[in-house]
Amino acid sequence: MIARLQALSAESRATFWRSLQTLNATRVVIALVLLVYLSFDNHGLRASGPYLYLQICLIYLGLAIAFALMAVYWQRRFLLQLLSQIACDLAVISLLYVAGGGLRSGLAILYLFPLAGSAILAPLLLSLFCASLVALFMLAESTWQVFMMEGEQPYLQAGLYGAAFFAAVFVVNRMAAKLIGQEELAIRRGVEITVQQAVNRLVMANVGDGILVIDAGGQVFAGNPAAQQMLGMIGPEMKFRLSAAAALAPLAQAYAEWRDDATRSTAYVTIKPYAEAALQDVTAAWSARRDLAAHLKVRFAAVNTEGLGTERSVIFLQDVTGIENQAQQLKLASMGRLTASIAHEVRNPLSAIGHATSLLGEDLDSTVHLRLLKIVGDNVARVNRMVEDILQLSRKVQPHSEPLALAVFLAELKAEFVETHGLPPDIIGTSAPPGTLVRFDALHLREVVLNLLNNAVRYASGGPESIRMDLLSDKARRMELHVQDDGPGISPEVRAHLFEPFYTTSSKGTGLGLYLARELCLNNEARLDYEYRFDIKDSPDGTPRSSGRFVITFAHPAQK
To answer: Are 454 and 503 in the same domain?
Structure first.
Protein backbone atom coordinates (compact mmCIF):
# COMPACT_ATOMS: atom_id res chain seq x y z
CA MET A 1 0.00 0.00 0.00
CA ILE A 2 2.84 2.40 0.86
CA ALA A 3 4.58 1.68 -2.44
CA ARG A 4 1.25 2.04 -4.28
CA LEU A 5 0.58 5.39 -2.62
CA GLN A 6 4.07 6.68 -3.32
CA ALA A 7 3.76 5.69 -6.98
CA LEU A 8 0.81 8.03 -7.40
CA SER A 9 1.15 11.68 -8.31
CA ALA A 10 1.03 14.41 -5.68
CA GLU A 11 -2.51 15.33 -6.76
CA SER A 12 -3.74 11.74 -6.30
CA ARG A 13 -2.07 11.47 -2.87
CA ALA A 14 -3.77 14.71 -1.89
CA THR A 15 -7.07 13.14 -2.98
CA PHE A 16 -6.46 10.20 -0.61
CA TRP A 17 -5.88 12.56 2.31
CA ARG A 18 -9.02 14.56 1.45
CA SER A 19 -11.01 11.31 1.35
CA LEU A 20 -9.64 10.37 4.77
CA GLN A 21 -10.65 13.78 6.13
CA THR A 22 -14.15 13.26 4.72
CA LEU A 23 -14.28 9.85 6.43
CA ASN A 24 -13.31 11.48 9.73
CA ALA A 25 -16.00 14.15 9.36
CA THR A 26 -18.57 11.40 8.70
CA ARG A 27 -17.33 9.55 11.83
CA VAL A 28 -17.96 12.65 13.97
CA VAL A 29 -21.50 12.92 12.56
CA ILE A 30 -22.17 9.22 13.26
CA ALA A 31 -20.96 9.62 16.85
CA LEU A 32 -23.33 12.54 17.38
CA VAL A 33 -26.21 10.57 15.82
CA LEU A 34 -25.53 7.69 18.20
CA LEU A 35 -25.72 10.08 21.16
CA VAL A 36 -29.06 11.39 19.91
CA TYR A 37 -30.26 7.81 19.39
CA LEU A 38 -29.73 7.17 23.13
CA SER A 39 -32.53 9.57 24.09
CA PHE A 40 -35.10 7.78 21.87
CA ASP A 41 -34.23 4.10 22.52
CA ASN A 42 -36.32 3.36 25.61
CA HIS A 43 -36.37 -0.41 25.20
CA GLY A 44 -32.93 -1.20 23.72
CA LEU A 45 -29.56 0.18 24.67
CA ARG A 46 -30.87 2.81 27.01
CA ALA A 47 -32.80 0.20 29.03
CA SER A 48 -29.98 -2.32 29.20
CA GLY A 49 -27.04 -0.04 29.97
CA PRO A 50 -27.46 3.65 29.32
CA TYR A 51 -24.29 4.72 31.10
CA LEU A 52 -22.13 2.20 29.24
CA TYR A 53 -23.71 3.29 25.95
CA LEU A 54 -23.12 6.96 26.81
CA GLN A 55 -19.50 6.35 27.73
CA ILE A 56 -18.82 4.40 24.54
CA CYS A 57 -20.41 7.12 22.40
CA LEU A 58 -18.49 9.92 24.13
CA ILE A 59 -15.20 8.05 23.79
CA TYR A 60 -16.00 7.40 20.14
CA LEU A 61 -16.78 11.09 19.59
CA GLY A 62 -13.49 12.10 21.21
CA LEU A 63 -11.52 9.62 19.11
CA ALA A 64 -13.32 10.80 15.96
CA ILE A 65 -12.34 14.43 16.65
CA ALA A 66 -8.75 13.38 17.37
CA PHE A 67 -8.56 11.38 14.14
CA ALA A 68 -9.97 14.32 12.18
CA LEU A 69 -7.39 16.74 13.59
CA MET A 70 -4.57 14.27 12.98
CA ALA A 71 -5.55 13.81 9.34
CA VAL A 72 -5.48 17.58 8.85
CA TYR A 73 -2.31 18.56 10.73
CA TRP A 74 -0.18 15.40 10.52
CA GLN A 75 -0.41 14.03 7.01
CA ARG A 76 2.04 11.17 7.46
CA ARG A 77 1.73 7.41 7.83
CA PHE A 78 -1.47 7.23 5.84
CA LEU A 79 -1.91 3.46 6.14
CA LEU A 80 -1.26 3.52 9.89
CA GLN A 81 -3.85 6.24 10.45
CA LEU A 82 -6.39 4.48 8.24
CA LEU A 83 -5.98 1.07 9.94
CA SER A 84 -6.16 2.55 13.44
CA GLN A 85 -9.35 4.40 12.55
CA ILE A 86 -10.96 1.34 10.94
CA ALA A 87 -10.01 -0.78 13.96
CA CYS A 88 -11.54 1.81 16.30
CA ASP A 89 -14.73 1.88 14.24
CA LEU A 90 -15.09 -1.90 14.23
CA ALA A 91 -14.40 -2.15 17.97
CA VAL A 92 -16.93 0.58 18.94
CA ILE A 93 -19.64 -0.72 16.60
CA SER A 94 -19.07 -4.28 17.88
CA LEU A 95 -19.48 -3.15 21.51
CA LEU A 96 -22.68 -1.32 20.66
CA TYR A 97 -23.85 -4.29 18.59
CA VAL A 98 -23.39 -6.69 21.52
CA ALA A 99 -24.86 -4.23 24.03
CA GLY A 100 -27.92 -3.75 21.85
CA GLY A 101 -28.65 -7.44 21.65
CA GLY A 102 -27.10 -8.38 18.33
CA LEU A 103 -29.08 -8.41 15.11
CA ARG A 104 -32.31 -7.26 16.72
CA SER A 105 -30.65 -3.89 17.63
CA GLY A 106 -30.41 -2.91 13.94
CA LEU A 107 -26.86 -1.58 14.44
CA ALA A 108 -25.32 -4.07 11.98
CA ILE A 109 -25.82 -1.51 9.21
CA LEU A 110 -23.18 0.67 10.90
CA TYR A 111 -20.50 -1.78 9.78
CA LEU A 112 -20.96 -0.47 6.22
CA PHE A 113 -19.32 2.82 7.22
CA PRO A 114 -15.83 1.50 8.14
CA LEU A 115 -15.97 -1.26 5.56
CA ALA A 116 -16.79 1.23 2.75
CA GLY A 117 -13.99 3.49 3.98
CA SER A 118 -11.48 0.64 3.89
CA ALA A 119 -12.74 -0.42 0.46
CA ILE A 120 -12.12 3.08 -0.91
CA LEU A 121 -8.77 3.84 0.74
CA ALA A 122 -7.20 0.44 1.40
CA PRO A 123 -6.13 -2.42 -0.92
CA LEU A 124 -8.72 -5.05 -1.80
CA LEU A 125 -7.09 -7.80 0.29
CA LEU A 126 -7.08 -5.66 3.43
CA SER A 127 -10.66 -4.56 2.85
CA LEU A 128 -11.84 -8.16 2.43
CA PHE A 129 -9.96 -9.06 5.62
CA CYS A 130 -11.92 -6.41 7.53
CA ALA A 131 -15.18 -7.71 6.02
CA SER A 132 -14.27 -11.26 7.05
CA LEU A 133 -13.61 -10.12 10.64
CA VAL A 134 -17.06 -8.52 10.78
CA ALA A 135 -18.74 -11.62 9.29
CA LEU A 136 -16.97 -13.95 11.75
CA PHE A 137 -17.86 -11.68 14.66
CA MET A 138 -21.53 -11.64 13.68
CA LEU A 139 -21.55 -15.44 13.30
CA ALA A 140 -19.85 -15.80 16.68
CA GLU A 141 -22.38 -13.49 18.30
CA SER A 142 -25.21 -15.50 16.69
CA THR A 143 -23.71 -18.73 18.07
CA TRP A 144 -23.67 -17.17 21.52
CA GLN A 145 -27.32 -16.27 21.12
CA VAL A 146 -28.10 -19.91 20.32
CA PHE A 147 -26.63 -21.00 23.64
CA MET A 148 -28.34 -18.19 25.54
CA MET A 149 -31.78 -18.38 23.93
CA GLU A 150 -33.23 -21.74 23.03
CA GLY A 151 -35.17 -22.16 19.82
CA GLU A 152 -33.73 -19.01 18.08
CA GLN A 153 -31.26 -19.56 15.23
CA PRO A 154 -30.13 -16.14 13.71
CA TYR A 155 -27.44 -17.73 11.52
CA LEU A 156 -29.28 -16.94 8.28
CA GLN A 157 -29.44 -13.21 8.94
CA ALA A 158 -25.80 -13.08 10.05
CA GLY A 159 -24.73 -14.96 6.92
CA LEU A 160 -26.72 -12.64 4.69
CA TYR A 161 -25.15 -9.60 6.34
CA GLY A 162 -21.68 -11.09 5.91
CA ALA A 163 -22.29 -11.87 2.22
CA ALA A 164 -23.64 -8.35 1.66
CA PHE A 165 -20.58 -6.85 3.34
CA PHE A 166 -18.23 -8.90 1.13
CA ALA A 167 -20.11 -7.90 -2.01
CA ALA A 168 -20.23 -4.21 -1.02
CA VAL A 169 -16.51 -4.14 -0.19
CA PHE A 170 -15.56 -5.79 -3.47
CA VAL A 171 -17.77 -3.52 -5.64
CA VAL A 172 -16.77 -0.30 -3.86
CA ASN A 173 -13.07 -1.20 -3.98
CA ARG A 174 -13.15 -1.91 -7.72
CA MET A 175 -15.06 1.29 -8.43
CA ALA A 176 -12.66 3.31 -6.28
CA ALA A 177 -9.64 1.75 -8.00
CA LYS A 178 -11.10 2.60 -11.40
CA LEU A 179 -11.83 6.18 -10.35
CA ILE A 180 -8.31 6.56 -8.96
CA GLY A 181 -6.89 5.27 -12.23
CA GLN A 182 -9.05 7.67 -14.22
CA GLU A 183 -8.00 10.55 -12.00
CA GLU A 184 -4.33 9.61 -12.38
CA LEU A 185 -4.75 9.42 -16.16
CA ALA A 186 -6.50 12.80 -16.20
CA ILE A 187 -3.69 14.30 -14.14
CA ARG A 188 -1.06 12.91 -16.49
CA ARG A 189 -2.99 14.19 -19.48
CA GLY A 190 -3.36 17.56 -17.79
CA VAL A 191 0.39 17.71 -17.19
CA GLU A 192 1.04 16.79 -20.81
CA ILE A 193 -1.41 19.45 -22.01
CA THR A 194 0.17 22.05 -19.72
CA VAL A 195 3.64 21.16 -20.98
CA GLN A 196 2.41 21.29 -24.58
CA GLN A 197 0.84 24.69 -23.98
CA ALA A 198 4.10 25.94 -22.48
CA VAL A 199 6.00 24.62 -25.51
CA ASN A 200 3.46 26.24 -27.85
CA ARG A 201 3.83 29.57 -26.05
CA LEU A 202 7.61 29.32 -26.24
CA VAL A 203 7.54 28.46 -29.93
CA MET A 204 5.06 31.22 -30.73
CA ALA A 205 7.08 33.73 -28.73
CA ASN A 206 10.36 32.92 -30.50
CA VAL A 207 9.28 31.97 -34.02
CA GLY A 208 10.17 34.50 -36.66
CA ASP A 209 6.81 34.36 -38.42
CA GLY A 210 3.82 36.14 -37.00
CA ILE A 211 0.86 34.03 -35.85
CA LEU A 212 -2.73 35.20 -35.33
CA VAL A 213 -5.61 33.04 -34.07
CA ILE A 214 -8.90 34.34 -35.49
CA ASP A 215 -12.54 33.31 -35.71
CA ALA A 216 -14.94 33.40 -38.65
CA GLY A 217 -16.00 36.99 -37.94
CA GLY A 218 -12.47 38.39 -37.96
CA GLN A 219 -12.06 38.55 -34.17
CA VAL A 220 -8.44 37.98 -33.18
CA PHE A 221 -8.00 35.98 -29.97
CA ALA A 222 -4.25 35.51 -29.70
CA GLY A 223 -0.99 36.38 -31.40
CA ASN A 224 2.73 36.16 -30.86
CA PRO A 225 5.27 39.00 -30.46
CA ALA A 226 6.34 38.67 -34.10
CA ALA A 227 2.77 39.42 -35.21
CA GLN A 228 2.67 42.42 -32.89
CA GLN A 229 5.83 43.79 -34.43
CA MET A 230 4.69 43.22 -38.00
CA LEU A 231 1.29 44.82 -37.39
CA GLY A 232 2.82 47.71 -35.44
CA MET A 233 1.18 46.94 -32.10
CA ILE A 234 2.37 48.18 -28.72
CA GLY A 235 1.46 46.28 -25.56
CA PRO A 236 0.48 42.69 -24.75
CA GLU A 237 -3.21 42.95 -25.72
CA MET A 238 -4.00 40.98 -28.87
CA LYS A 239 -7.80 40.80 -28.79
CA PHE A 240 -9.32 43.01 -31.46
CA ARG A 241 -11.27 42.80 -34.71
CA LEU A 242 -9.49 43.12 -38.05
CA SER A 243 -12.16 45.44 -39.41
CA ALA A 244 -11.66 47.85 -36.49
CA ALA A 245 -8.58 49.50 -38.04
CA ALA A 246 -8.34 50.95 -41.52
CA ALA A 247 -4.64 50.06 -41.63
CA LEU A 248 -5.54 46.37 -41.39
CA ALA A 249 -8.11 46.49 -44.19
CA PRO A 250 -5.82 44.67 -46.69
CA LEU A 251 -5.39 41.81 -44.22
CA ALA A 252 -9.14 41.68 -43.50
CA GLN A 253 -9.92 41.67 -47.23
CA ALA A 254 -7.42 38.86 -47.90
CA TYR A 255 -8.95 36.84 -45.04
CA ALA A 256 -12.45 37.33 -46.45
CA GLU A 257 -11.32 36.25 -49.91
CA TRP A 258 -9.75 33.11 -48.47
CA ARG A 259 -12.98 32.23 -46.66
CA ASP A 260 -14.84 32.58 -49.97
CA ASP A 261 -12.22 30.58 -51.88
CA ALA A 262 -10.08 28.24 -49.76
CA THR A 263 -7.67 27.66 -52.64
CA ARG A 264 -6.40 31.23 -52.24
CA SER A 265 -4.49 30.41 -49.09
CA THR A 266 -1.60 32.82 -49.76
CA ALA A 267 -1.68 36.57 -50.29
CA TYR A 268 0.62 39.60 -50.13
CA VAL A 269 -0.45 42.71 -48.23
CA THR A 270 1.16 45.97 -47.16
CA ILE A 271 0.42 47.13 -43.62
CA LYS A 272 0.82 50.77 -42.66
CA PRO A 273 -0.26 51.08 -39.02
CA TYR A 274 0.66 54.76 -38.89
CA ALA A 275 -2.27 55.43 -41.20
CA GLU A 276 -4.61 54.61 -38.30
CA ALA A 277 -3.57 55.88 -34.87
CA ALA A 278 -5.73 53.47 -32.89
CA LEU A 279 -8.45 50.88 -33.24
CA GLN A 280 -11.99 52.16 -33.14
CA ASP A 281 -13.65 49.65 -30.82
CA VAL A 282 -10.93 48.84 -28.28
CA THR A 283 -9.21 50.78 -25.56
CA ALA A 284 -6.37 53.19 -26.17
CA ALA A 285 -3.95 50.61 -24.74
CA TRP A 286 -3.51 49.37 -28.33
CA SER A 287 -1.74 51.93 -30.46
CA ALA A 288 0.02 51.58 -33.77
CA ARG A 289 3.63 52.40 -34.36
CA ARG A 290 4.06 55.35 -36.67
CA ASP A 291 7.38 54.28 -38.19
CA LEU A 292 6.38 51.02 -39.85
CA ALA A 293 5.39 50.00 -43.35
CA ALA A 294 5.59 46.23 -43.67
CA HIS A 295 5.07 44.11 -46.76
CA LEU A 296 3.78 40.77 -45.56
CA LYS A 297 3.19 37.38 -47.07
CA VAL A 298 0.14 35.92 -45.32
CA ARG A 299 -0.93 32.30 -45.29
CA PHE A 300 -4.26 31.04 -43.94
CA ALA A 301 -5.01 27.66 -42.38
CA ALA A 302 -8.21 26.33 -40.80
CA VAL A 303 -8.10 24.67 -37.38
CA ASN A 304 -9.91 21.33 -37.12
CA THR A 305 -12.66 22.15 -34.58
CA GLU A 306 -15.26 19.72 -35.87
CA GLY A 307 -17.88 18.92 -33.23
CA LEU A 308 -16.68 21.66 -30.84
CA GLY A 309 -19.29 24.24 -31.81
CA THR A 310 -16.74 26.94 -32.70
CA GLU A 311 -14.50 27.90 -35.59
CA ARG A 312 -10.89 29.05 -35.52
CA SER A 313 -8.32 29.84 -38.19
CA VAL A 314 -4.64 30.69 -38.04
CA ILE A 315 -2.99 33.46 -40.05
CA PHE A 316 0.75 33.11 -40.59
CA LEU A 317 2.52 36.41 -41.28
CA GLN A 318 5.93 36.59 -42.91
CA ASP A 319 7.82 39.83 -43.53
CA VAL A 320 9.13 39.24 -47.03
CA THR A 321 11.18 42.45 -47.11
CA GLY A 322 14.10 40.79 -45.38
CA ILE A 323 13.81 37.72 -47.61
CA GLU A 324 13.80 39.90 -50.70
CA ASN A 325 16.85 41.80 -49.50
CA GLN A 326 18.64 38.58 -48.69
CA ALA A 327 17.92 37.16 -52.14
CA GLN A 328 19.13 40.37 -53.73
CA GLN A 329 22.33 40.34 -51.72
CA LEU A 330 23.04 36.75 -52.77
CA LYS A 331 22.60 37.66 -56.41
CA LEU A 332 24.64 40.84 -56.07
CA ALA A 333 27.46 38.96 -54.36
CA SER A 334 27.98 36.87 -57.47
CA MET A 335 27.26 39.80 -59.76
CA GLY A 336 29.88 41.95 -58.08
CA ARG A 337 32.61 39.50 -59.05
CA LEU A 338 31.63 39.91 -62.70
CA THR A 339 31.37 43.71 -62.75
CA ALA A 340 35.12 44.37 -63.01
CA SER A 341 35.55 42.29 -66.17
CA ILE A 342 32.29 43.21 -67.90
CA ALA A 343 33.55 46.51 -69.33
CA HIS A 344 36.45 44.86 -71.16
CA GLU A 345 35.22 41.30 -71.74
CA VAL A 346 31.66 42.10 -72.82
CA ARG A 347 31.33 45.78 -73.63
CA ASN A 348 34.13 45.94 -76.20
CA PRO A 349 32.85 42.93 -78.23
CA LEU A 350 29.36 44.41 -78.10
CA SER A 351 30.65 47.68 -79.51
CA ALA A 352 32.41 45.83 -82.31
CA ILE A 353 29.29 43.82 -83.12
CA GLY A 354 27.14 46.94 -83.11
CA HIS A 355 29.56 48.85 -85.36
CA ALA A 356 29.81 45.93 -87.79
CA THR A 357 26.04 45.66 -87.92
CA SER A 358 25.72 49.36 -88.79
CA LEU A 359 28.26 49.08 -91.60
CA LEU A 360 26.66 45.94 -92.93
CA GLY A 361 23.24 47.58 -92.96
CA GLU A 362 24.51 50.29 -95.34
CA ASP A 363 25.38 47.72 -98.00
CA LEU A 364 22.31 45.47 -97.79
CA ASP A 365 19.00 46.11 -99.54
CA SER A 366 17.16 42.82 -98.92
CA THR A 367 14.22 43.07 -96.56
CA VAL A 368 15.04 39.73 -94.96
CA HIS A 369 18.64 40.69 -94.34
CA LEU A 370 17.66 44.04 -92.88
CA ARG A 371 15.19 42.33 -90.53
CA LEU A 372 17.90 39.96 -89.35
CA LEU A 373 20.29 42.87 -88.82
CA LYS A 374 17.61 44.66 -86.79
CA ILE A 375 17.23 41.59 -84.53
CA VAL A 376 21.00 41.55 -83.99
CA GLY A 377 21.02 45.27 -83.27
CA ASP A 378 18.12 45.06 -80.81
CA ASN A 379 19.77 42.27 -78.84
CA VAL A 380 23.10 44.10 -78.82
CA ALA A 381 21.32 47.16 -77.41
CA ARG A 382 19.61 45.03 -74.80
CA VAL A 383 22.85 43.44 -73.62
CA ASN A 384 24.56 46.81 -73.64
CA ARG A 385 21.74 48.26 -71.51
CA MET A 386 22.18 45.42 -69.05
CA VAL A 387 25.90 46.13 -68.86
CA GLU A 388 25.17 49.80 -68.17
CA ASP A 389 22.76 48.87 -65.38
CA ILE A 390 25.27 46.53 -63.78
CA LEU A 391 27.99 49.19 -63.92
CA GLN A 392 25.61 51.69 -62.40
CA LEU A 393 24.94 49.34 -59.48
CA SER A 394 28.64 49.27 -58.67
CA ARG A 395 29.01 53.05 -58.65
CA LYS A 396 26.60 53.85 -55.76
CA VAL A 397 26.40 57.56 -56.62
CA GLN A 398 25.71 59.70 -53.55
CA PRO A 399 22.52 61.75 -53.88
CA HIS A 400 22.16 65.50 -53.58
CA SER A 401 19.90 66.38 -50.67
CA GLU A 402 18.57 69.77 -51.79
CA PRO A 403 14.79 70.18 -51.36
CA LEU A 404 12.83 69.29 -54.48
CA ALA A 405 9.53 70.98 -55.43
CA LEU A 406 7.58 67.84 -56.27
CA ALA A 407 4.53 69.41 -57.96
CA VAL A 408 6.70 71.25 -60.51
CA PHE A 409 8.90 68.21 -60.97
CA LEU A 410 5.96 65.92 -61.76
CA ALA A 411 4.43 68.39 -64.22
CA GLU A 412 7.69 68.73 -66.16
CA LEU A 413 8.31 65.00 -66.14
CA LYS A 414 4.78 64.29 -67.38
CA ALA A 415 5.13 66.70 -70.29
CA GLU A 416 8.51 65.24 -71.25
CA PHE A 417 7.29 61.64 -71.02
CA VAL A 418 4.13 62.26 -73.08
CA GLU A 419 6.06 64.09 -75.79
CA THR A 420 8.87 61.52 -75.95
CA HIS A 421 6.53 58.52 -76.28
CA GLY A 422 3.98 60.27 -78.48
CA LEU A 423 1.12 59.67 -76.02
CA PRO A 424 -2.18 61.55 -75.67
CA PRO A 425 -1.74 64.52 -73.30
CA ASP A 426 -4.53 63.34 -70.98
CA ILE A 427 -3.31 59.75 -70.51
CA ILE A 428 -1.46 60.68 -67.31
CA GLY A 429 -3.31 62.34 -64.45
CA THR A 430 -1.44 64.02 -61.61
CA SER A 431 -2.37 65.52 -58.28
CA ALA A 432 0.15 67.15 -55.96
CA PRO A 433 -0.31 69.94 -53.42
CA PRO A 434 1.55 73.01 -54.67
CA GLY A 435 4.67 73.94 -52.78
CA THR A 436 5.32 70.43 -51.46
CA LEU A 437 9.05 69.85 -50.89
CA VAL A 438 10.85 66.55 -50.41
CA ARG A 439 14.51 65.65 -50.00
CA PHE A 440 15.34 63.50 -53.00
CA ASP A 441 17.95 63.83 -55.71
CA ALA A 442 16.17 65.12 -58.82
CA LEU A 443 18.11 62.92 -61.27
CA HIS A 444 17.53 59.83 -59.14
CA LEU A 445 13.81 60.53 -58.72
CA ARG A 446 13.49 61.16 -62.45
CA GLU A 447 15.00 57.76 -63.22
CA VAL A 448 12.75 56.03 -60.67
CA VAL A 449 9.51 57.63 -61.90
CA LEU A 450 10.38 57.10 -65.57
CA ASN A 451 10.92 53.42 -64.86
CA LEU A 452 7.49 53.19 -63.19
CA LEU A 453 5.81 55.12 -66.02
CA ASN A 454 7.36 52.85 -68.64
CA ASN A 455 5.88 49.83 -66.84
CA ALA A 456 2.50 51.57 -66.52
CA VAL A 457 2.31 52.43 -70.23
CA ARG A 458 2.85 48.77 -71.05
CA TYR A 459 -0.27 47.62 -69.15
CA ALA A 460 -2.59 50.67 -69.11
CA SER A 461 -5.66 50.85 -71.31
CA GLY A 462 -4.55 54.15 -72.91
CA GLY A 463 -7.68 56.05 -71.96
CA PRO A 464 -7.82 59.42 -70.19
CA GLU A 465 -6.01 59.27 -66.86
CA SER A 466 -5.44 55.55 -67.22
CA ILE A 467 -2.11 56.32 -65.53
CA ARG A 468 -2.05 58.41 -62.37
CA MET A 469 0.62 60.01 -60.21
CA ASP A 470 -0.81 61.17 -56.87
CA LEU A 471 1.11 62.81 -54.02
CA LEU A 472 -0.51 62.11 -50.64
CA SER A 473 0.30 62.69 -47.00
CA ASP A 474 -0.56 60.21 -44.23
CA LYS A 475 -1.26 60.85 -40.55
CA ALA A 476 2.44 60.51 -39.75
CA ARG A 477 3.10 63.45 -42.13
CA ARG A 478 4.95 61.17 -44.52
CA MET A 479 4.73 62.06 -48.19
CA GLU A 480 3.85 59.24 -50.59
CA LEU A 481 3.90 59.26 -54.37
CA HIS A 482 1.47 56.72 -55.86
CA VAL A 483 2.04 55.57 -59.45
CA GLN A 484 -0.71 53.33 -60.78
CA ASP A 485 -2.54 52.32 -63.92
CA ASP A 486 -5.92 50.79 -64.73
CA GLY A 487 -4.43 47.53 -65.96
CA PRO A 488 -4.53 44.20 -64.10
CA GLY A 489 -2.61 44.02 -60.87
CA ILE A 490 0.57 42.02 -60.41
CA SER A 491 -0.06 38.45 -59.28
CA PRO A 492 1.22 37.36 -55.85
CA GLU A 493 3.67 34.97 -57.51
CA VAL A 494 5.26 37.78 -59.51
CA ARG A 495 5.10 40.15 -56.52
CA ALA A 496 7.28 37.78 -54.50
CA HIS A 497 10.18 38.39 -56.94
CA LEU A 498 9.29 41.86 -58.20
CA PHE A 499 12.34 43.72 -56.86
CA GLU A 500 14.88 40.95 -57.36
CA PRO A 501 17.66 41.71 -59.85
CA PHE A 502 17.42 39.98 -63.24
CA TYR A 503 13.80 38.92 -62.67
CA THR A 504 11.52 39.97 -65.50
CA THR A 505 8.30 38.85 -67.19
CA SER A 506 9.09 40.67 -70.43
CA SER A 507 11.18 39.20 -73.19
CA LYS A 508 12.73 42.63 -73.81
CA GLY A 509 13.44 43.53 -70.17
CA THR A 510 16.70 43.14 -68.24
CA GLY A 511 15.15 42.56 -64.83
CA LEU A 512 17.16 45.41 -63.27
CA GLY A 513 14.83 48.38 -63.67
CA LEU A 514 12.74 48.00 -60.51
CA TYR A 515 15.72 46.83 -58.53
CA LEU A 516 17.67 49.94 -59.53
CA ALA A 517 14.66 52.10 -58.71
CA ARG A 518 14.41 50.64 -55.21
CA GLU A 519 18.17 51.03 -54.68
CA LEU A 520 18.00 54.68 -55.68
CA CYS A 521 15.14 55.22 -53.24
CA LEU A 522 17.13 53.61 -50.45
CA ASN A 523 20.10 55.84 -51.27
CA ASN A 524 17.78 58.83 -50.75
CA GLU A 525 16.37 57.46 -47.44
CA ALA A 526 13.08 56.64 -49.15
CA ARG A 527 11.30 53.40 -49.90
CA LEU A 528 9.72 51.91 -53.02
CA ASP A 529 7.11 49.18 -52.68
CA TYR A 530 4.17 47.64 -54.49
CA GLU A 531 0.86 47.69 -52.63
CA TYR A 532 -2.41 45.96 -53.32
CA ARG A 533 -5.57 48.03 -53.03
CA PHE A 534 -9.28 47.28 -53.22
CA ASP A 535 -11.58 49.63 -55.13
CA ILE A 536 -15.36 49.35 -55.01
CA LYS A 537 -16.23 52.33 -57.21
CA ASP A 538 -14.57 50.78 -60.27
CA SER A 539 -16.24 47.42 -59.79
CA PRO A 540 -19.46 46.78 -61.77
CA ASP A 541 -20.94 44.34 -59.22
CA GLY A 542 -20.07 46.38 -56.14
CA THR A 543 -17.50 43.95 -54.80
CA PRO A 544 -13.94 45.17 -54.10
CA ARG A 545 -11.73 44.94 -57.19
CA SER A 546 -8.14 44.09 -56.47
CA SER A 547 -5.43 46.12 -58.20
CA GLY A 548 -2.06 47.49 -57.28
CA ARG A 549 0.14 50.56 -57.28
CA PHE A 550 3.77 51.49 -56.78
CA VAL A 551 4.33 53.68 -53.73
CA ILE A 552 7.39 55.84 -53.07
CA THR A 553 7.46 56.75 -49.38
CA PHE A 554 9.73 59.69 -48.71
CA ALA A 555 11.74 59.74 -45.50
CA HIS A 556 10.27 62.97 -44.11
CA PRO A 557 8.81 66.19 -45.47
CA ALA A 558 11.37 68.86 -46.27
CA GLN A 559 11.02 72.31 -44.72
CA LYS A 560 10.30 75.26 -46.96
So the answer is: yes
